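Re: the 217-residue chain
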Amino acid sequence: MGISRSASFILFLALGVPLAAQDPHLGIGLSLAFPTGGFNSTNYPGAGKANPPSNEGYDTALGVQFTASFPVQQDLAVRLDVYGQDTSGTDTSPGYASYNLEHELFSIGGEAQWFLGDGDAFRHRGAYLVAGPSLDLERFSSDYGDQYFNGYSMDKTRLGGLVGFGYSFRPYRRWRQTVEVAFHKTLSGYSAPTQPATVSPGTPPADFLRVTYGFVF
């Protein structure tokens, strides 16, 4: 499935289906993102003196999430999920100066929420499962933190996916507190690790565990 078809499917989930649903529950949350797999650490083999062996890794990041959950049935809602984060990292190579990495992510997702047991999508109350695709706009950058070195950057548009579990509790008027644990995985636009050009960042899949605390009203 290409990016254009995937984007159309996400827009259908995020914009088309909710037209027949109830008024949305709007939400805002702060997330901690913990990189996993190659996003957490990638070893690149050397390719001569110009490109020695190196390791790239990204740190825990703070993200912001905005949601609109449209109830369809008592146990089902369709959710628009807009998420952004900025992640710092480092490229290290034995005997060479390290340089800084940065990954910026803006993600637009269309997800289904299944409320479990006594959960209620109309009230956004109780435990739920969430899953769906996303369109991820990303920028990978590198620099030495030196005013004489402008660094390099590379933009990527990739398809992602999210699956997780959440709980909405303690109503205060229309407000709910929510806790959500979800895993984000890059589904397209990457390949096996290859050595990037000197001081140019690699582009590993942006896989991370996201823990979010927020409010829905």
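The mean pLDDT is 86.
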